[in-house]
């Protein structure tokens, strides 16, 4: 017995929410699973719901496979008989309602085989015959117990289904056991359930689920619905609704292609989340078979008293005649809510006479399958596990060798509590087919004694109830007006699907990929499929799980086609995918009708017509002893190669009413075939033989798979039997043209010859095409030994052979793979087309759904190698985002250095514009680093570092042309003269961040700013003079240390922002007056854009080496060296653009010293390049603000072609001196006492821009719009409007850069806001200067604020500055000097 559990936290004392109230959630949620494979898959699905917030993170999750049943361990004592059609139909109905035993097959006698309706007629009025056939004498063993009549149970007991009551008792025991162990107990602690709310989800298994055989079960399959309210876990007791139909700015980011998937399990959990808020501790049990929509406004749903009643509470709903004669109905005392009687599938007359149906509205109260046991009743229920014979309901009883008791929730437990039930009527309730009657009676006596006095009440909830039993129900449901709690739900036409077809695709498309030339209709349904080429799906047809990569694929109208993955443990196949079968049936086909019933149909025609047109005989479809119904007909070939189009033809011919081609029917006959019963594990393929293949010829056999040979291991055939099969197949293949009858005779003769020997039975064989196989593998003297699997219990030993059935894990895996591929194709579409949509929600979903990181990265890697070059930066950022998402904040901060030498080779490829090799190199290097979260974050930083190089490459395309000075206008400076450049700083007023690459060239940027003087002077100065010596001297500040550069190596740290003089070095190099030379240490060389370079490639490295003269030689050719001094009286990180403005001054002064100058536009571009050289990044608005005086508007247009370049333009606003003075009278600056580093904020903004989040896209557009409003206000001099726009601008900047408003800033804003019309932090935010537009004159406001701020502890460093608009901008002057700094001798160290 295997159990699976998953938890986030230990289940102990409840935590409190922020209001001090106890948080209410499900302490544990368990789901039953018919098989071990289901247990694993259900647990994964519940984990996904936990990640999505539908289930609390604190909830303990567990999946519980139903116990294996030890049936058939006694010898058979009676002659076997067949079940009638009515038995089969009614049993199937019971399975779907209560999740009980499936169809079990017995050997038919000739009478029943040929006249299946005889038994129906004799017993058609016996509604309980599904549990016990009263028309036949009970089979009793020596101890008086009824014998299980199923011989198949002797061979594979663990595939028999248990009752819902047995499953519930077993699950409650397992939950208690798990919680006890979790709390450290070494014994079963019954008290562990105290004060806990436990939810058990009963899953009925994989029976005939709509739309067809569904290995994933109805609960975990998508429903094409939208406008469905999904109630998430009620964190802090608030109803957190997510309405899927709402499309507004607050909606969560889109992570699905088309409409978001809706699963019945989500709707159920949503309903129960609504209930749990008012629910007392106890045990909730819920069936998952129905689709129920609660009316959220129903008072009973939120009642504080109803959900705290003692005993058992059953949720009921009012339904009409369509349901109340086919389900369990409750007779209720309307005054007290007490359930008086439960009637199952009673005729309408019975329900009317006995008061079940309301005379007012012709409705009855349906038993919804949702039941709640209070704590006291739960304890009584738990004690049943230790009470004979109910102890055999648990896996402990099975492990003790007991016959597992098949018990139902409704007939065996709930009926014992209803008022009108008598002891005798209760004991005579129907019991499950195959059960021991005396054992059931003993168990019911125990339940009667334990629960007879337990009150059972109804809690009636308003809403809608749906039960989809078959494909017809399903189609009617999705094509009708569906009511969900008073709202009309809308059927989704495209639910998480990628469609790229030549023509528009109609119908309902769910989790599918459709390409090529496809045709479908409004009533077509396509689920979990991949269709390409020329395909068509007819009207009212359902295609489920199909992967068709062929040129043609056509499905007729009113058909169901379902591709089922099969278990491949013992089947050898030539591809990595599982073998599969294509189930092809008609919508109206009844799986349980006998083929000779005139009303029975196959593929929308009667059986007689089908057999006549195809030439197929019944003996080819059914083995002896199997009821001849559609469910057991082995119609469907096993496909071992999904590239084998001929095998698909051999499957699809069933839908054609005309006779199939001889080649197709011949291939069908020679194929290995299975039935629906085989797929869902309802038959034990005793006759499905397998050949043991010798190692030396294994390669030969695998090479023949394409010829239709299926090689399977462990044969039960002897060589004679194989030869018989060969002869039969030879007859089939050689005489397809005219010997169908002979072929049938051969089959019949073979059946007769082998009837006495089960191991040699050839009637059930797959008709192996073994002509060449046996000749090559089995020698005449060698016999293949039978190989069986055996298990022993007591004195009896029974054998079983390998089964071929549906692969549950593969079914879930296929559905998830389709979902992943849909995501991948949509991501590729978004990135390759440059669509402004974020892919991060998809990546986050992958992480939450446990998609491996390697798989996610491989998808992005593949896209990166085919994506247009203009989107390279975005792709690098997306890969970095993916790494960070999977790390989930466990590897350190995202922002950080990205200069590790191991990535230098990759970076060099990007520097020389070989992006493809750059990506490949990064992939190769990345594989070495995915060993820890910390290493993964470091890789993410280097991907962003590569992205910064890509941005730099684009920035470097903008023109920066030096022109000689016009000496007639500009005075010349001698070698002893200082060129002095002074500049104002700037305040940004609107549009900030839109000037930053890549935003400015991917979206287009517009900014407004103004040049200002602080305390009456320009704040920035650059001083440069020529030197005779060929040396460069840089000094930061008037009193700073000198940085002397004598060789090119001394300049190599220009791109390290914190290196001494890095800004000055970058500005000098940007002039382009010198090249890098051959005295560089090539071990550390990096390519420099704009320089002559050649690529040197060795066996291990590739380097860009620049070949040129030494620094000394180049300076001598320029006429000497240079001394440079920079100064600013403002603190670093002021937010006033000091670095970029200083760079503009330095470049201007350096160029002037050598007799050159830039135009204003090219100067803006040159500074932009310097910021990229420094690796700090940044926009172009700062240099505009300092170079040009007054108020300016700067612009940069969006790229429209690959040849576009960044072109920045700036225009001064037409404003009068009076208007400017008015603004001066209301302008104030406050230094916050905190500096800020724009780089970290810049990295985050670029990261989010590349992510294309809806917030940043809409906010970027809003920034552009605000510039126009601010521009109008500035020109008019409207102080109040200017303040309003400034505040609006600040809110937009906060939305762009998370972290731009620390607590200290909020504190200062709160102090000044009553005295201003608006305010903003200058620049990126986070610290520096604060801009105020005051209500009163700035002088008055300054004194008030100084007094207010001075009283606040911790704000001592805050300072208020007078400021005014500077209308001149950059100014150049020449200063004559008699003395100048002597160059230190060569032996002086730096």
DSSP helical segment count: 41
Beta-strand percent range: 15-25%
N-C termini distance: 76 Å
| Percent range of helical residues | 25-40%
The structure class reads alpha/beta
Give the uncertain stretches in residue-range form: 70-83, 87-160, 239-251, 684-802, 1077-1106, 1386-1390
Give the strand tally. 56
Largest sheet: 10 strands, mixed
In round numbers, the mean pLDDT is 79
Rg result? 40 Å
Q: Describe the global form.
A: elongated
Written description of the protein model:
With 1390 residues, the protein is of the alpha/beta class. The chain is elongated, with a radius of gyration of 40 Å.
Entry summary:
This protein is an alpha/beta fold and 1390 residues long. Helices cover 33% and strands 18% of the residues.
Which characteristics define this entry?
1390 residues, alpha/beta, ten-stranded mixed β-sheet, eight-stranded mixed β-sheet, elongated, disordered C terminus
Topology:
Elements (H helix, E strand, L loop, with lengths): L3 E3 L21 E6 L2 H17 L7 E6 L19 H14 L11 H5 L1 H8 L40 H19 L14 E6 L22 E2 L2 E3 L9 E3 L20 H13 L5 E6 L3 E4 L17 E8 L1 H4 L3 E5 L6 E6 L3 H6 L10 E11 H9 L11 H5 L9 H4 L10 H5 L9 H15 L4 E5 L2 E4 L4 H8 L4 E2 L2 E2 L1 E2 L2 E2 L2 E4 L6 E3 L2 E7 L5 E3 L2 E2 L2 E4 L4 E3 L2 E2 L3 E4 L3 E7 L5 E2 L7 E7 L14 E2 L2 E2 H8 L21 E4 L5 H8 L9 H9 L2 E2 L1 H4 L18 H6 L7 E2 L6 H16 L5 H14 L17 H7 L11 E5 L2 E5 L7 H26 L6 H9 L4 H12 L7 H16 L16 H8 L3 H12 L6 H23 L7 E2 L13 E6 L1 E6 L8 H4 L2 E10 L5 E8 L4 E5 L5 E4 L16 H9 L23 E4 L4 E4 L5 H8 L2 E8 ...
Parallel strand pairs: 2-3, 2-4, 4-8, 10-14, 19-21, 20-22, 21-23, 22-24, 22-25, 23-26, 24-27, 25-28, 26-29, 44-48
Antiparallel strand pairs: 1-3, 5-18, 6-7, 8-13, 9-15, 10-13, 11-12, 11-13, 16-17, 29-31, 30-36, 31-34, 32-33, 34-35, 37-38, 39-49, 40-43, 40-56, 41-42, 42-50, 42-55, 43-48, 44-45, 46-47, 50-51, 52-54, 52-55, 53-54
